[in-house]
Amino acid sequence: MNTKAFKAYQSTNVTTATPEKVLLMLYEGCIKFIRIARVKMQEKKIAEKGKNISKALAIVAELINTLDHEVGGQLSMDLENLYMFIMDKLIEANINNKMEDLDTSEKILLTLYDAWRDVVNNPRPDGVPSPNLQPELYSMYLKSKDGQANSETIKNPNEKTTNAVSVNLSSDVKSGNQKGNSVKKVG
């Protein structure tokens, strides 16, 4: 498939996807760019590393823009703080060539991606999504001294949580308004 045709296919895929699928695509893209940045960092290709970290940062910024704090409440605020933490780690990785910061960012994003994929693919019979979302991830930010997390504070993504959450993923795709995607704690 030639590049022009592939880009047209990708564009169609995004414009016809549900808001939930677009959210998953954002996570997938961000994780992909972090992995490419890691390779470029190892290869000492500084410009390409920076380019891919910049793409990951742009996606995280878009994830922040999808949050609706009025609907999502405290969990939405916690997710925003977690996304800001990821942005800080990506910036540190870019400036200081710290692989650990890329690793931390990827681990958090993978856990969130798995949770959202669970929400999208496994709705409850009553129609309300039932995610295995782990709000405790934010604790890695809160528990760390001076905002710097360490690998011991990252929860195992396979652990079950006791918190119930409700997800509201409404969006007006035609207008491009992604506001309204939110998560709120209900239990």
From TrEMBL:
Keywords: Bacterial flagellum biogenesis, Cell projection, Chaperone, Cilium, Cytoplasm, Flagellum. The keyword DNA damage does not apply. One of its GO terms (cellular component) is cytosol. Residues 148-181 have a biased composition (Polar residues). InterPro entries: FliS (IPR003713), FliS_sf (IPR036584). It is found in: Cytoplasm, Cytosol. Belongs to the FliS family. This is Flagellar export chaperone FliS. It comes from Silvanigrella aquatica. The lineage of its organism: Bacteria, Pseudomonadati, Bdellovibrionota, Oligoflexia, Silvanigrellales.
